[in-house]
Write a structure and sequence with these properties.
Length: 432
Amino acid sequence: MRTGKILGAYSLVYFLAFLAKVKHFTLLSSLLFLFLAVFLYVVEKKEEKTTLPLSGIFALGLLGGEGISVLQLSTLSSSWTNSTWLSFYFCYFFFYFFYNLFAVRKQEPEQKDSKMSQEGDARFLKTCVMTLLSISYVSFLIEAIVLGYVPLFTEHTPHAYSAFHLKGLHYFTTLFVLVPMLLGYLVKMEKKITLFDFLTFFLSLLLPILLVSRFQLIFSIVLFLFVLLLTGYRLHWKKLFLLFLFLGVTYLILTIERAHSVSYLLDIFAMKNKNIPILFVQPYMYIANNYENFNLLTKNLEVHSYGFKMAYPFFTLTGLKFFLDIPLSYPLYLTKEELSTLTILYDAYYDFGLFGVVLFSSVLGGIAAWLKSCNKSENPFIMAILAQFTFYLFFSFFTTWFSNASVIFYFGITLFFALFWRLRRNGKNKER
């Protein structure tokens, strides 16, 4: 009954926002979408009694992004097709429906172990952290030696990071992104911040700086914050301010190091109003143009990929692409070659059109329903999987996360450690 009411309200406001846009009341349409995103987040936060309700987070990312995108402040924008409007409407509708349809009873918190056992768990988690960091640094050094440079120390090289890849190895170089969120769980476990936490946190954030990767820096820090929130840690505003200050400063430095001048960026973004400061233009375009790329896909796609786009990580990570003659390269429909982010739905639509969107959203909702039940798990790696999933829903406006080989690789590595943790705990219980 509650699900029907929420979806009814969602459908009504979405239709009004759509109507406002087609009648050229653009600002009203934007405000309606933003209201809808915040409303759904607040309602789900109250219902689930958590700061990070998956359905609410998805609304903020997908519908909030749509609210910003409908402003269409760039000349790269164009009228949206009916397929575009229906895709984003269907996406949240079916996600939410199956999220509630497959909702399972929350697991009870696992029984607390003795102090000695908890100390053993903390030591094991530290070993995992050091293992991931060691793999990252060794892989990074191999890439730097073979390629002959470190992206941070190059000059006037806009694509230094993009070229800093050795096939296969670079997946392992970027494993450092998993470290900060594990440290968040370690802080909760030990109830204090130690020198080990400081040093490994610093080392994990040093690598994205050396790589000049703004995304991996943001990814690492947001995952860290999500784990803290999921484990019930109360973030003090001073600590949060310092963390975001560090993120802002390093983001600015990395932007400069990537050799992208303001004039270069403004030329690419092609804003209708040339007087809007780059400080607002850049985040706006990183959200809005993704929807325009999706819209371009619905306008120009002639032949669907019939599952191969979404299956790309499977063929890549298993190595099957080297043995099977399968089509894995498809044209991208982009407003500009430099603006290549796509929204979470791009590959699902590429595969099967609107049916692909409905199928993908339904499966995503079902997975989210299961993960929702795991938010009290004492397994830090299960919480790490939940944190990653939450991140991808929140940044659903950005790219096709679940058909990205790196994302699936991170899930796979985290799941490996989660199973290792569980086997270890089961072994300890049998010894008792």
